[in-house]
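Internal ticket #5521
Category: modeling
Description: The requester needs a full-assembly model to guide mutagenesis choices. All entity lines are attached below as received. Residue total reported by intake: 895.
Assigned to: D.W.
Attached entities:
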Amino acid sequence: MGRKKKKQTKPWCWYCNREFDDEKILIQHQKAKHFKCPSCHKKLYTGPGLSIHCMQVHKETIDKVPNSLPNRNNIEIEIYGMEGIPEDDIKEHEKQRQGKASGGRDDDDDDDDDGSSPMTSQGATTVTAHHSLAPQPGRPPHMPPVPTMQPMMPQGQQGPPPPWAMGQPMMPMMGPMGPMGPMGPMGPYMGGPMRHMGGHMARPPMGPAGHLGPHGGPPPPVATAPPPPQPGPTKPLFPSAAQAGGPPPKTGSAFNPQFSSAGSSGQQQSSSGGSSRNGSDKDGSEKKTLITAISSTSRIVHPDEDVSLEELRARLPKYQFTKPRPAQQQQQQQQQQRDSSPQQQSSRGSSPSHKRPHPSESPSPDDRRKQPREQPPSSQAAPTSTAAAMPGMQAGMMMTSHPQMVRPPGMMVEAPMTHMGPIVSTMGPMVSPMGPMVSTMVPMMPHSLGIPVTQCMMRPAVGAMMPAMQGMQPMGGPLQLGAMNVANGPQMGHPGIPGHMMGPPMMGAPQMIPRFSTFSTWSTLG
Amino acid sequence: MMFSAPSTFGTTSTGFGGFGNTSTTPATANPMKDFEVINPPDDSVQCLEFSPAALQQDFLVAGSWDNNVRCWEVQRDGKTVGKAQQTMGGPVLDVAWQDDGTKVYMASADKSVHCWDLGSNQKVQVAAHDAPVKTVHWIKAPTYSCIMTGSWDKTLKFWDTRSPNPIMSMQLPERVYCADVDYPMAVVGTANRNIIVYWLEQQPQECKQIESPLKYQHRCVSIFRDKKNTPAGFALGSVEGRVAIQYINAPNPRDNFTFKCHRSANGTPNGFQEIYAVNDIKFHPTHGTLATVGSDGRFSFWDKDARTKLKNSEAMEQSISCCAFNNNGQIFAYAVSYDWSKGHESYNPQKKNYIFLRPCVDELKPRTR
């Protein structure tokens, strides 16, 4: 490992941070992108040159280098290729290169649409890294043995001495660390070696190391402070740890909070220990990562916070649902109370008869499922329990009760609903009662399908499915549940009820077994 | 087939003799003149899935932020017929068909996944998480079948749908943002740019974690197959208008690459280039080419092997939030609705959401080389 004799830093453009394979190309790039006169497209050679040209030829002042990063748009500085770049910026660039997870991917902005496979090499190195490095304890296996190391070497000593050579302050450590590229994992290392050093090594030596490490940022205290159990000798690091340093590495400053404070173990915790935190809360507690564009000429159309659009959206009160399951039941309760329609009585009345013949099913999957959750079982014993225990009822209730539903003041849904409860609950034993049901339903169809009502159109139709299906039953659709049962065999060794068929316990009575032909029947109705 | 030869184009392509208010659809809303699905959801469409090949007909299922999952029958002539609807306790973040077409699994922000039995129109809970469930997929292995759910609670769980407890629960480094399953491969993309690949043979197990080829938040992932028709890699889309094509075991590392998409033309002298999120990626089931849709309101078709763009659509009025191919690749469905990319401020609940259907077989033919 450690033998890190990497080729020189690639030439890069001070104005936009882009890297090039060849300085000639870099110069071409600068002329085309940064030193081109906006007015006449003449290509100048330097920023000041451009400025003078504009002033003299077009009588215009140009105060910024075109297409440059905000902090690199100084037109006064004379830069040509790699010449003239302020020393500090060179150092910073090198640091930053370390930070980038060895990507080798240039600063974006211009790889063509077809993708010149920029990150390919990365893939490869990752793989090899697995083999070559994995056995070495304490080396995160997925860290590519990468190139990016090199820049810092010159600043210290030439060949990386063996890690145990403590002669030089931090350098020995840094050598072997190089290959790690990304910052995240650096942490652990800092922690590790530091402990050894603790004795003979005082703070000061860290000084020079400061700017050598990719994240020159973390001051000694951070590095020394965590003497954490070396996080990953054998266990593969979560990439997150590596990436924590990574996100958009462009402007190191934006991310400083992440590594500087999080240090080594912090990263680890955030990946593994963070599990307890709730996904959505979590962002508050952690420093917010932001999405920032790399180049000054582009803008990512996305809220600033680096959180998925769905999470952001779900924060809107409108989309907050209150309590997960109990809410449903409450709704049902309310609904029942509000309606106090025949529905309620009928469902209550019929449900016991439904339940008794199928004792094995009595804990409807819904109920069973609720138990592991924090919901007190007692709530199921509430007056609604009978209804809740019936899948059919529940589904039905859900439809009417959901607050989001917009429905014309109509009984359109009520009608099927009233039937649905009983139907479902008694479904198993009897099929014949369906007959009349169908007839009661049919009259509805014109309403439901013929009226250009917007959303509600579908709902009655749902109700209508039930009778339709019943009608279909004798015909026997092509799809039988049998196949599914086979498919769902107990091979997985799930803790569930081994002998249970999929259909019955889940879906209610066996007769309800899906026949897709219902759809076709239904469409004939429409 | 017939679908690819639309007779009534654009205007009243929907069912029921034009009652599906297509007549009011302004031309700007349907710049590609595609078939409009009647009675679209009332809030943004989050997910779209066509029924599997097990069913002779095509059914389209859409989950949306109005908490509903809707099902339409899509007829050969491009007409759609509303079939049924279910309601969840929160916005619906993902849907998945069971391979036999009898059931649809619905993952919701209410932290649950419900199974919708289409035959009986019953729904029943089959999975639970501690946070909203972002993804659900049906896994059909020779030796088992189950659903895989990924949540913002940083777990990936596998459920036999008959048991209240997961068969398997896997801790993830971060919240699940996207996932795809194509037996025997599963890929999960999470926050903080993690990619984890699972192998599902025998039983689900982690295969490897891959360093992200992208520098920005993962948003969508889709598995593709190689010439031998076995899953070989995935396409990963990020919020920075970029897609990475990544092979699991790249024969040649150069096979992996990224390409830019869904960005505004770099036109205006002083202006910014706007970079939009890639909202969804789907591979064509027979051609192996792919479609991407973006916050910029466009869809694009690509040939990853030739590394060329096959087609770029006009811009819709709003973002395209998701897309789907039907099982034989005749139909490309895409949903035009707000995806939150411009934040809460730009959300206009009055804006109508659309789902369009496009005959796509020819447009997705791979580039002949």
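Resolution: model delivered.
Comment from assignee: Chain A is about 45% helix and 0% strand.
Ticket closed.
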